[in-house]
C-alpha cells in the first residue's frame, strides 16, 4: 500500500458498547442517510464488535462490485442468516460454486426467453384485472390492498414462467411464509448475537416458514421427476443441467435450493416495486396523467403484449424512478478477502463493506431533487449524464441480479395493464412508509380504491 492511503475515521456513535446498532435497529434508512451526509464518500462504524465500512461514492462502489470484485465475497454474516432458509445457492454462494450455478441458470434469462414469457405475464395481469372487475361488480366500494394483489399476480407469473405451476391459489400461504422469513431475517440483521438454536416462538416460526416453502418445492420437483415430462422452464433446465467438466447433474436438494431463491426473488421484489409505483402514481396526478396518455396512444383499447414494451418508454421511466426512490434491495454487502484501497482509504483484509443503495439513490450529490418523483430523469438524454454506479436497483458487476430483465418486463406489462383500465386512489388517512426488511416494503400495506377509466 502507498503512504497516501489512510484509515477511514470512525463515525459519531461508534464508540459505545453497541456501536451503531441501536440506531440501526430504530431506523436503518435514517442511519445510512446520516452517515452519508456527515461523511460523504465513505464512513466507518461498528455494530457490536464488528467494524464496517459504508461506501457511498459510485467510483468506490464500482471498485468493490466490478473492478476488483474477486477481492470481495458475499459477507458471511448475511449469507449465514440466509442459509438458514436456503443453504448454498446462487444468491448465497461464492467462488467457483457461484460461477457454476450462474452459468447453469443464465440461459433461462436471455432476452429471447424473456420474450417467450411475455404471454404469461400479460395473461396474469389480464386475469387479475378480470377478477377485480367481478369483485367491484359485487361490491363497488371495495378497498383493494395493492401489496397483496401484486404479491398474488407476481407469484402466479413466476410459478408459471419458471416452473409451469400455477401458484396463485397458494399465493396467500406461500406469500405469508416469505413475509415471515423476511421479518425474521430483518430481526437477525438487527440482533446479530441471536442464534438459530435459541428456544422460543421466533425461531420456531422461522422454521415453519422455511418448511412451508421447502415442502411445496420438493413436491414440484418430485412430480416433474415422476412424469418425466420436459418443459421449457427453469425446473426442467435445472433437472437436465450437467457440469461441463464432470458431467454431473444437480441433486434434488440443490435444485430445491435454486428454485426457492428464484421464487423468492422472482415475485417479492417485483411486487414491492409495483406497490410503490402505484403509490407514487396515486399521489402524483400529473405523472399519472402522462403515463395514461402514453398507454392510450400505444395500446388504444387492446391489451399490452411483449411487443409493446419497447414503445412504452414513459412507463419504463416510471418503473426506473420507482426503483430509485424505493429500491427493493435497499442495501448490499461484501467482505474484503485481501487488503485494498478505495481512493485514498485503506480497506483491511476481512473488513465488511456495506453499500447503502437507498442512501445513494437519495443523495443530492448524485441526483438533482433526489426526493422528488421525476420519471423524466430516466429519459435517454439524461441518463447518459448520470454517474455510473449511482443507480443500483439490481446491484452491479458480475453478481448483478440475474432476473433484472424478467422483472422489468413483468413490471412494465402489469403497470400498463392496470393503468389502462383503472385510476387508483390511495385511501386517505393511511400512512405509507418504507419498511426495510429483506425487501423495502410498504410498512402497513397499500389500500386503494379503483375508478374505471
Keywords:
single chain, 453 residues, alpha+beta, five-stranded mixed sheet, three-stranded antiparallel sheet
Provide a quick synopsis of the model.
This protein is of the alpha+beta class and 453 residues long. 52% of the residues lie in helices and 11% in strands. 42% of the residues are buried.
Kindly describe this structure.
The protein is of the alpha+beta class and 453 residues long. It contains 16 helices and twelve strands. The strands form four sheets. The protein has a five-stranded mixed beta sheet. It has a three-stranded antiparallel beta sheet with strand order 4-12-9. A two-stranded antiparallel ribbon has the order 6-7. Helix 7 runs antiparallel to helix 11 (252-282), helix 10 (234-240) runs antiparallel to helix 11 and helix 11 crosses helix 13 (313-325). The longest helix has 31 residues, at 252-282. The protein is globular and about 65 Å long. 42% of the residues are buried. The model has no long low-confidence stretch (mean pLDDT 92).
Quantity of strands, as a count: 12
For the sheet with most strands, the description reads: 5 strands, mixed
Order of the strands making up the biggest sheet: 1-2-8-5-3
Task: Report the C-alpha radius of gyration, rounded.
Answer: 22 Å
**Beta fraction of the residues?**
5-15%
Give the ordered list of helices and strands. HHEEHEHHHEHHHHHHHEEEEHHHEEEE
Spans where pLDDT lies below 50 across 5 or more residues? none
Amino acid at each position: 500500500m502507498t503512504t497516501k492511503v489512510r484509515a477511514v475515521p470512525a463515525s459519531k456513535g461508534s464508540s459505545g458498547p453497541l456501536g451503531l446498532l441501536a440506531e440501526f435497529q430504530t431506523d436503518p434508512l435514517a442511519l445510512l442517510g446520516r452517515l452519508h451526509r456527515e461523511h460523504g464518500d465513505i464512513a466507518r462504524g461498528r455494530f457490536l464488535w464488528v467494524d464496517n465500512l459504508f461506501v457511498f461514492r459510485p467510483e468506490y462502489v464500482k471498485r468493490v462490485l466490478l473492478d476488483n470484485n474477486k477481492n470481495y465475497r458475499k459477507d458471511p454474516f448475511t449469507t449465514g442468516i440466509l442459509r438458514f432458509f436456503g443453504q448454498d445457492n446462487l444468491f448465497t454462494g461464492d467462488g467457483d460454486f457461484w460461477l457454476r450455478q450462474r452459468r447453469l441458470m443464465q440461459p433461462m434469462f436471455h432476452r429471447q426467453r424473456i420474450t417467450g414469457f411475455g404471454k404469461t405475464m400479460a395473461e396474469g395481469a389480464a386475469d387479475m384485472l378480470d377478477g377485480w372487475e367481478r369483485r367491484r361488480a359485487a361490491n363497488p366500494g371495495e378497498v383493494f390492498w395493492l401489496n397483496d394483489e401484486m404479491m398474488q399476480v407476481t407469484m402466479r407469473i413466476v410459478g408459471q414462467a419458471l416452473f409451469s405451476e400455477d401458484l396463485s391459489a397458494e399465493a396467500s400461504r406461500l406469500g405469508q411464509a416469505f413475509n415471515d422469513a423476511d421479518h425474521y431475517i430483518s430481526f437477525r440483521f438487527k440482533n446479530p448475537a441471536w442464534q438459530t438454536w435459541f428456544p422460543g416462538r421466533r425461531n420456531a416460526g422461522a422454521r415453519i416458514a422455511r418448511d412451508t416453502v421447502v415442502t411445496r418445492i420438493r413436491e414440484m420437483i418430485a412430480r416433474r421427476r415422476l412424469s418425466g415430462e420436459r418443459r421449457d422452464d427453469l425446473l426442467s433446465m435445472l433437472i437436465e443441467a450437467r457440469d461441463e467438466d464432470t458431467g454431473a447433474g444437480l441433486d434434488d436438494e440443490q435444485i430445491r435450493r435454486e428454485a426457492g431463491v428464484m421464487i423468492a426473488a422472482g415475485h417479492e421484489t417485483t411486487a414491492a416495486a409495483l406497490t410503490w409505483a402505484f403509490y407514487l402514481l396515486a399521489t402524483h396526478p400529473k405523472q399519472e396523467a402522462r403515463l395514461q396518455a402514453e398507454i392510450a396512444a400505444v395500446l388504444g383499447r387492446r391489451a399490452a403484449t411483449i411487443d409493446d414494451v419497447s414503445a412504452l418508454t414513459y412507463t419504463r421511466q416510471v418503473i426506473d424512478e420507482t426503483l430509485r426512490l424505493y429500491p427493493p434491495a435497499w442495501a448490499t454487502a461484501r467482505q474484503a478477502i485481501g487488503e485494498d484501497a478505495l481512493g485514498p482509504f485503506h480497506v483491511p483484509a476481512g473488513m465488511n463493506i456495506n453499500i447503502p443503495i437507498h442512501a445513494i439513490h437519495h443523495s443530492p450529490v448524485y441526483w438533482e431533487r433526489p426526493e422528488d418523483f421525476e420519471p423524466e430523469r430516466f429519459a435517454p438524454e439524461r441518463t447518459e449524464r448520470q454517474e455510473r454506479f449511482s443507480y443500483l436497483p439490481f446491484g452491479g458487476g458480475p453478481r448483478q441480479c440475474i432476473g433484472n430483465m424478467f422483472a422489468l418486463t413483468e413490471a412494465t406489462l402489469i403497470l400498463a395493464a392496470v393503468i389502462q383500465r383503472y385510476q387508483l386512489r390511495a385511501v386517505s388517512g393511511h400512512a405509507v412508509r418504507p419498511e426495510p426488511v429483506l425487501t423495502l416494503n410498504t410498512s402497513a400495506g397499500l389500500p386503494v380504491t379503483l375508478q374505471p377509466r
